[in-house]
Each structure stands twice: as C-alpha cells, then as structure tokens.
Amino acid sequence: MLKIFRGTAILEGVSYLLLFGLSMPLKYWANIPQPNKWIGYAHGILFIGYGVLLVLLTFEKKWGIKKFLKFFVASLLPFGTFYIDKKYLKPSAQKALDS
C-alpha cells in the first residue's frame, strides 16, 4: 500500500501545481475555464485518495498523530508531497519513516 500512497502523493502534487500554475491562470487571465474544471476534478479525487490512504497507512504502520499531521499539511503546500516523498517515502528513506 505504501507504493500506491507514494504514487498518489506524486500525482496529487503534480495536479496541485497544474491547477495553480496552468489552469487557474488560463481561467482568470485568458478566460479559458475548461482546463480548470477537469484539472480541478482530478486534483480533488487525488487529494481525497491521498487523505484516505494516509489515514489507512497511519493505522497500519502505527505512525502517530505527529507524522500524520506532517504528511497531511504537506498535501496543502505546493511541493509538499514531493518533499514527503523524498524525505520519507523513497526506498532509501524507509528507515526514517519507520522510526
């Protein structure tokens, strides 16, 4: 399940950046709202998936509230899920995740 969470975290981060870096400028500066709708849907689904997987993994791995909050807040920040992936989720960082 950790691999699925890692993939979801990366996709959620990419969709977040696409939403704010591409589709919102198109919507408000170029008056092209269609990409914002579809990227927004994708981001919403990925964000919910990230949250559900985070809750499941928190219970499965017995991470604790501190690690849960760190991972959740990262999903609200630009580039946050990329930081979490590099620091905690990559196979080379698995020891830090388990501690």
Automatic annotation (TrEMBL):
<feature type="domain" description="DUF3817">
    <location>
        <begin position="2"/>
        <end position="88"/>
    </location>
</feature>
<feature type="transmembrane region" description="Helical">
    <location>
        <begin position="38"/>
        <end position="59"/>
    </location>
</feature>
<keyword id="KW-0472">Membrane</keyword>
<keyword id="KW-1003">Cell membrane</keyword>
<protein>
    <submittedName>
        <fullName>Integral membrane protein</fullName>
    </submittedName>
</protein>
<feature type="transmembrane region" description="Helical">
    <location>
        <begin position="7"/>
        <end position="26"/>
    </location>
</feature>
<dbReference type="GO" id="GO:0005886">
    <property type="term" value="C:plasma membrane"/>
</dbReference>
<dbReference type="Pfam" id="PF12823">
    <property type="entry name" value="DUF3817"/>
</dbReference>
<dbReference type="InterPro" id="IPR023845">
    <property type="entry name" value="DUF3817_TM"/>
</dbReference>
<keyword id="KW-0812">Transmembrane</keyword>
<feature type="transmembrane region" description="Helical">
    <location>
        <begin position="68"/>
        <end position="84"/>
    </location>
</feature>
<keyword id="KW-1133">Transmembrane helix</keyword>
